[in-house]
Design brief:
Layout (H helix, E strand, L loop, with lengths): L1 H17 L26 E5 L4 E6 L3 E6 L2 E6 L11 E7 L4 H12 L6 E2 L7 E9 L2 E10 L2 E10 L3 H13 L2 E2 L2
Antiparallel strand pairs: 1-2, 2-10, 3-4, 4-5, 5-9, 6-7, 7-8, 8-9
């Protein structure tokens, strides 16, 4: 039963990723005018101008930002995890390898042998993605090329947190713009 559920979740994620970059960050949702429009959430959307050469919009009430070396990471502010790998979006700038070398390294480290799918990440020259399920964790990888620089995006989340953070993290990815 767990494998069947995992297959359904993986199919849903791959379907969502097939259109990555095609969703508007500020998309409006139709609402019945007779319903109240009160919101119980306090949205604190900020645009981060990273020293790594990109900008990204994220909700500071939901995610904490950390920068170290050539990598930035975003983790849910309210998620306390005792596992080594929790919900996280990490963006790494790689200037020392070609995009082909980055792809080869990701394949080697992840063990992924399937086809990487093209997608859109901001104004990158090109981008590829793939996802895999590993020990109840959904791992989604993106490689974006901007000129001679590659950016490696790693999205990690437990299958149990798929619905809770998946949409926000994909919206964050859709908001990325690179400095050229």
């Amino acid at each position: 039963m767990k494998q069947f559920l995992a297959l359904i979740v993986l199919t849903l994620v791959l379907t969502l990723l097939a259109g990555c970059g095609n969703t508007e960050l500020n998309a409006e949702v139709e609402q019945d005018p007779s319903e109240p429009t009160e919101s119980t959430e306090n949205i604190n959307l900020s645009t981060l101008e990273s020293r790594l050469g990109y900008s990204i919009a994220y909700d500071r009430n939901i995610f904490l930002y950390n920068s170290s070396g050539d990598a930035d990471s975003f983790i849910p502010a309210n998620l306390i995890s005792t596992t080594a790998r929790a919900v996280e979006l990490t963006i790494t700038k790689i200037s020392t390898l070609s995009s082909e070398e980055v792809i080869d390294a990701v394949r080697t480290l992840s063990g992924y042998r399937g086809t990487m799918q093209p997608c859109v990440i901001g104004n990158a020259d090109s981008a590829l993605t793939f996802a895999q399920l590993e020990d109840e964790m959904m791992l989604t990888y993106f490689i974006a090329t901007v000129g001679e620089t590659s950016y490696f995006f790693e999205l990690i989340r437990p299958v149990s947190e798929e619905i809770a953070y998946g949409a926000q993290l994909l919206e964050m990815l859709n908001s990325v713009m690179f400095t050229k």
